[in-house]
């Protein structure tokens, strides 16, 4: 049974709901859907799962972009409703016939709806009898919703219907889903992994198109990890080609002549003593400098023009010219395809992870299909504008990233503010930790470092050198100690000596290194830091997704807490070495939902910046 | 025929025109030229004046505040005098130019108001910057029931509004509207005002520390050295109550009609 069907405007006004059904929904599934799926550029997915006390709903939706309407159906997840997609499409067709922007009351739609519902149910019934229910529905769905790009969406789609909230069993079953749907492309193995994990929690999320462990899911992990824990690990299938743990010999060496901040080598420790101890005079951190970003609108337009020209050449300029003057009836998938493809490729040349570029394009497509093209606009520029809006939305932090405010708040409570730096090997954790320390110092915040990388030899010395140059206390206990304990003692020490902030350095670790990930999870669980900062290289491409999602996943899996702490901020390093390949920023934010709080962009202590969202978006679309 | 061909032809044509224009200028006597320049200058001046005049008499009121505060409900109460079937989280702004619903029965010609309801979801905050510059007044809607859990977020958002360039430069009046007072658990507007002031005071401290340059807006709030109070703002900041659900919105309407005279 359908729980509810709603029709509302993108502005948020409900135009029609089915009163016959009349069930009050538990929790607020619709608002949650909008906030954590539709507004997070995940509307390309085919359904969304909502859980509240006493409720497990699946939501499906479709847009009428030209009229700015949204149609959402809500049903109990345990029910295997096959007709929902059809029903939504039919409702959309019929409702758009009677819709007028001025009109607010649509009681007369009630009868029509009952009729449509009956039709849809009959159809589903018939299909069931003809013994190929799943495929038929999915084929239709792909076409109708216009988002079945790769079938990944459908794959997930099916699995939910089987997800009876029966955790353990579910975890094992999920692997087969992709197959069950007749989609047996390699990606689905990955999909199986993700869903297995989530399914085990009695929750699952639709949007896992191609194995991304995305944020909604993380949230769910955060939300509840009750029971079924075993399956979490059993069903894990490792993802495609993985880069070997590589310890790069300080990548920045080749781009910059001198590595002023590199004290990695313990041997150089003596040498480092010669370095002037006081590093406090290096000028203001770039965090404090207003970035002047001249929006060179002229060249932008020119660029757009050029783009469009390429586009027109391909499609034959006459028809395109005609379309642009007349204003095309309404955009369909085929119209958007070439422009989206071009955009996706462009994003990927900027180093955006492929699956993320893909999902973004799906989401943009979902928001444009059916829209009328305004006169004198080109499809390519319409798509570009929609993508630009989407990118700005993603990169705009969902919460305030005012660390200073948080530091002061902690101070008011008489507690030190604890930041844990985590990340894979060789990304520049310690160096950027020092930069953050420098920035804090400049704002009269007293800082203490905690050397909790008790794993890699030389790490403690490296940090000690930074501490000496910055003249700040460092807490160290040598090697071989449990880093969680070292951190705990460091925090106690900071409370005693009145330090405002404790910056905890941890050992770099590959996301697949189970013992080390377990140790990290413990460190975070034991010390409940105020900020878990993921340090990542701006150089990474597709691996960004893997790193961040695995880090979050492992932190969740290994934590004894039902509400495990996950990554809540990102520090992007080596930003000066990537030129216009700024895609990692987007990939990381999209996959983790955490904002980029700092950007490391050079060799000296002052080279720490905030992320300039506008500049990034502009570069991505260039 | 392809594009390049067309382009070169257009270029040639334009060049021809330029040459002709130059010849024309050389042939006409200077006095006539000066007159022409004067006329052009005068027109531009006039246009600028009109634009300035228009801006001062803006009839735009912007509804803003955190998601779930009740902006959309208030928007429809103002427009239709009804909350219809209710609302869900907005994904796009609601915009409309209309005579307030309570005024539709009045006789005579009434000036319509342009009201914009900007979604509160933080991903959509960028939209606010589009509308603030044309605002004659800003209504910051606060959920008086669920106030405490959202106090800090609301304060940060309000701080942003109060220090945004256009609000500061144009002294845009701000009404802090405590919504949902139909519920018995709603906090009083006095309580809410105090909490907001306290929170903004803290924010101000941390922001001025950082504000040497890295915060995007360079404006600071209130009098340094004193605890922050809304009365210190250069623009008028008032506080009111409303219930979007029951349609109890007189204070909101008064605020609007004070700024956009009927
Ligand atoms: N009790 C009560 N509930 C209200 C009142 N005003 C709004 N609500 C409820 O609050 C919820 C949110 O209202 P909206 O108008 O959609 O909120 P909004 O500010 O537009 O939120 P966004 O669009 O997300 O920014 C709805 O469920 C309303 O029914 C009120 O005066 N009293
Ligand atoms: Mg709204």
TrEMBL record, chain A:
Keywords: Endoplasmic reticulum, GTP-binding, Membrane, Nucleotide-binding, Receptor
Keyword Manganese: no
Database matches in CDD domains: SR_alpha_SRX, SRalpha_C
Cell location: Endoplasmic reticulum membrane
PANTHER family the record matches: SIGNAL RECOGNITION PARTICLE RECEPTOR SUBUNIT ALPHA
Family of the protein in this entry: Belongs to the GTP-binding SRP family.
GO MF annotations, alphabetized: GTP binding
Record protein name field: SRP54-type proteins GTP-binding domain-containing protein
PROSITE patterns hit by this protein: SRP54
Chief localisation class: endoplasmic reticulum
Superkingdom of the organism of origin: Eukaryota
Tagged with keyword Endoplasmic reticulum: yes
One Gene Ontology CC term in the entry: endoplasmic reticulum membrane
From TrEMBL, chain B:
Membrane topology label: Single-pass membrane protein
GO annotation, biological process: protein transport; vesicle-mediated transport
Tagged with keyword Nucleotide-binding: yes
Primary location class: endoplasmic reticulum
Record keywords: Endoplasmic reticulum, ER-Golgi transport, GTP-binding, Lipoprotein, Membrane, Myristate, Nucleotide-binding, Protein transport, Receptor, Transmembrane, Transmembrane helix, Transport
CDD domains tied to this protein: SR_beta
TM annotation in the entry: 33-53
GO MF entries: GTP binding
Presence of the UniProt keyword Cell inner membrane in the record: no
Record localization: Endoplasmic reticulum membrane
GO cellular component, one term: endoplasmic reticulum membrane
Domain of life: Eukaryota
Family: Belongs to the small GTPase superfamily. Arf family. Belongs to the SRP receptor beta subunit family.
Protein name per Swiss-Prot or TrEMBL: Signal recognition particle receptor subunit beta
